[in-house]
Amino acid sequence: MSAKEAILARVRAALADVPADEPLERVPDRAHLDSHGVGPTLDVLEDRLVDYKALVHRTPADRVGEEIAAALARRGARRVVVPPALPGEWLAGTGIETLTDSREEPLTVRELDASDGVITGCAVAIAETGTIVLDGGPDQGRRAITLVPDYHLCVVRADQVVDGVPQGVRLLDPARPLTWISGPSATSDIELNRVEGVHGPRTLEVLLVEAAT
């Protein structure tokens, strides 16, 4: 048994007493809900992300394209990497050159590193821990495209945000390539000097797309 198989076996054993037909709570508009008594879910997520030194902006759904254009302008980005199924309207009229990465035609590490950043969607976001999870979906792409560029702009919809880790895990497929992101890449040496950009982008910018009212 491989290490992966052993881990999955332990996960299955731990979930053995969970009813298979237990209804999965998925509420489109969670902004008004309370995240474990801490506060409204989207507010908690934003607070955690900011605490992790991510840049965060709230936007209505009909202004996502404008907010992306504004974020790229602030960054001075001209060439960005995009996954194959990033919604076209997000970049319409921005004048930004896009480099599409796909599993069939992947960009090289040199091309990824030479870009000004990457734009993706996400699979799930967890308010309580300020974590964004990517699963390699069509609007997220290969793991490499969010690890090599120095700037990651991630769009998170309100209906993708859950309160805690258990709810998030239940929405994910463990067989997919999961990347858990809690703020920009950072580490500390033995003297606790913070170093950013070691394992991924030094700058994480998040657009929280609020549910329509």
Automatic annotation (TrEMBL):
InterPro entries: FTHF_cligase-like_sf (IPR024185), LUD_dom (IPR003741), NagB/RpiA_transferase-like (IPR037171). Residues 109-209 form the LUD domain. Pfam families: LUD_dom. It comes from the Bacteria. Gene3D superfamilies: NagB/RpiA/CoA transferase-like (3.40.50.10420). PANTHER family: LACTATE UTILIZATION PROTEIN C. This is Lactate utilization protein C. It comes from Nocardiopsis lambiniae.
